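Bench notes, afternoon.
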Amino acid sequence: SDIDSQVDLYNYLIIALMTIKLGLIKILGTKKKNVVVTGDKQGLGKAISEIFDINGFTVIPYGVRRSIEEIRQFFDIYPYPKIDYLVNNYGINHLNWIGSIEEQDYQILDMNVKLPSMVVNELVARKLGPTRILNIVSQTYKIPQRCTSIYCASKAAVVQMTKVMARELAEKGYAVNALAPGKIMDTRMSELTAQDPFSDPER
């Protein structure tokens, strides 16, 4: 409905205001250039993309790209000679109680660590910088939550990866930072991390 759409837009604007005014613009700068936001179809990524667009940036749709082939396809069709800003936002989570973790749960590491690494690697390899890069992580990198051991580990890994990227790429003119928001809007991700497995009578 229109009311639901207005509420969604309001939520997006609130989160965008928080991330842009308090984080992204401060970190990335204010010049109106082009930006790529991964995970831009919903939730935080959509909010970030919309606020960049509202502020006059050229936002290049990224879509869902989960393999190196798909990432390379994106760069093959990228329409500009340079990426000014990259926001690595894409990530997944699902609860995994220690003792019942299955092989598929380790996809979290692939999606949350491997993908942002591959995106940055491809960007640098194709010499589309220097770029200001922001890796979105989570407060869980330092504040553990039950049943999210792999997710917490993935976010901690991205924080450390960000530090290495910053040191390696600084001499090439890149600026690499991480932003670790808490729960700031209702998304599928926040619903998962808010669940309390101890309320499950089977546990």
